[in-house]
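Our platform keeps sequence and structure together, in a single record for each protein. This encoding replaces a full spatial description with a residue-level series of whole-number codes. We quote a single record here, exactly as it is kept in our systems:
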Amino acid sequence: MRVQVPETFSAYAARGPEWTAFLDRLPVMARELLDEWRLTADGAPTHGECALVLPVRTAGGRPAVLKVSWPHWEAELEHVALQRWHGAGAVELLRADPHRYALLLERLHPEDLGDLWDVDACEVVGALYGRLHVPAPPQLVTLSSCVARWSDELAALPREAPVPRRLVEQAVSLGRAFATDAATDGRLLHTDLHYANVLAADRGPWLAIDPKPLSGDPHYEVAPMLWNRWDELVAAPRSVRDGIRLRFHTLVDVAGLDEDRARDWVVFRMVVNAMWRPGDPAWATRCVTVAKSVQE
């Protein structure tokens, strides 16, 4: 039986030839994995931005999911992080084929933190930090090496970049300090821990999924909880600034993080993020708003 790739995932072929090649071989590769791992399809496949996710059952009847990712560096060592956590605070890894970017994972529930009040969700994530931020495996890319590169890229931005020059200069200064700080590396970071990447589970109320792991500083982890669920911040009766600050302080307080260090990481990360989508002024404005809000 051929695995049917959702049309919305097949449409990612428009991203370029590497995606086209991956999507062309994906149905055969998924079918091979089902056969080799003695899995039975158990529902319609879904997908995120970079991976096909197929509900399956193992030979013993256990519900699971087969995840096959587009090959990219952020997914290359996902299995290493999941092995290190061994199900503590995160989805359990049952099997992996790193060469094919394929993972067999325990099946969680579809409910994520998107239905909780954002502050309640921040309390959940703040509590997860302590379980996930264990000593990092040695194979992981270090946050300091990434920060050194990103700082150089920020320093080279033209003055007409869509971020206030003062904020760019602040981020460059912070980044260069972080790049030489021994505390910037050493702990296993998820790096993309936000509302949609925490699912309800039978083993515990909430478990993290889809890490993009680095060896880094736990204070780097906060920012994704601030820039996601943006429409709710805009629509809330309180100001966007107050909403961001409430999320920030909830995460810092629950996790026991250093407020100043977490703030500096948010500023640096949001300025870097502003460069993700050139030509998207709304995104740049969001990033600048978050960076300013945690400081004012």
